[in-house]
Amino acid sequence: MRTLHCFRLEMVVAGGMLALSVGTASTVSGQQPVEDEGAAASSTEQGQTPLDESFDWRGREWRLQKRKGALEDTEFKLHSRTYYFYREKYDGSISEALATGGWAGVKTGYFLDHVSFGVTAYTSQHLSGDDDRDGSLILASGQEGYTVLGEAYVDLRLVEKFHLYVGRKEYDTPFINRNDSRMTPNTFEAITLQGTTDLGSEGATLKYGLGYVDAIKDRNSDDFVSMGRDAGADADRGVYTAGALYKKGDFSVGAIDYYCPDVINIGYAEAKLEVAISEKLKPRFAVQFIDQRSVGDDLLLEDGDSSQQFGIKAELPVGGALFTAAYTNIFGDGAIQSPWSGYPGYTAVQVEDYNRDGEDALMLRAAYDIPWVKGLSAYALWVHGLDPDPAGLYARDEYDLNLQWTAPKGVLKGLSLRLRYAVVDERGGTGDDLTDLRVICNYTYTF
Hints:
- With 447 residues, the chain is mostly beta strands.
- The protein has 1 helix and 20 strands.
- The chain has one helix at residues 227-231, and strands at residues 9-10, 75-88, 94-107, 115-128, 146-159, 162-169, 187-199, 204-217, 224-226, 239-248, 251-260, 264-274, 284-293, 306-318, 321-332, 360-369, 376-385, 395-406, 415-427, 434-446.
- The protein has an 18-stranded antiparallel β-barrel.
- The protein is globular, with a radius of gyration of 21 Å.
């Protein structure tokens, strides 16, 4: 049995806030949480999943060789999380809570080389927080704790690099994902297929997936509800989804579609490219497009309504720093919705998504891995939003600061501490700022 020690502890103090992926986005499946990376590694915001990280097989390469001892390959995971959240909203009301919990799970090896099982239980328990300060989303409604069996699935390895998943499970794609920015992640009841095909001898791959997602357990809930109802429609509907991602070297392009009958259809496409100008100068570029429209009986949107978002992003790594600029524009008949995940827009940050009808936003971000304290990183960003189209909505600027320490190799490996602070300036309305403070402590142990 291989032993991996990974302990992670996360805590937040606040004053403001398939197409299917394989793996549970945990250390049991080998996928490391985004918050364990240094600030200069990526500009992806917590709770988001980029398209090029969908259909991923990270941490599963060791399973590709035929194995006979499924019990010897079984892994157990224990993840502890403590979280403080404080947000003072535009109207002066406050959401505040302190919670502790996390999850524990097991993922077996493959019996008869083809059949594996996964089970994970999640919990969040109240430590502090008055009833009149509800709404932090780190506890259930009413500042109540909860415990839920969030994962219980069968993983059928039909052939190498082609799997069928059935049951409750975590997924990570742009519009159906874990959205793991509170105490516990979203999980889903689904049946999905995913595969990877190697194309030629130059390292090109095609990752693809399709499936049906029937229900979701929201991140602060112990109940699974219909995907249609979770989106806001008064009907039980699931989501059919399919997509693919082509990747060769530093270039990737892909698309994914989510079809919820009579409720909504969301299409997402994205391309990324790194340009190696020199050994030290390698800028990265990305472009995204979202199309959302009403379908069938129009149980959520108005008949014929459709909305689109265009986004572009440029990143420049310089030593231990990463500089990012991004722009997004919403156009069409309304806001872009993201009912089952964190919003994937390039300018969606700690509090605001900048996805309202007619809203444009520009983001500037700087991140740095601090060399004199091993494991310490930081980033700061500014998003400048323009006035959305609907009357009574106002332009907003958001300023975020993130400081994180991840324990290096040694006895504390797996421990991380994170401080997130945001201020949102609404240019109009009450004139009051929104402030959001989060302190997060995670510890993960896998064996």
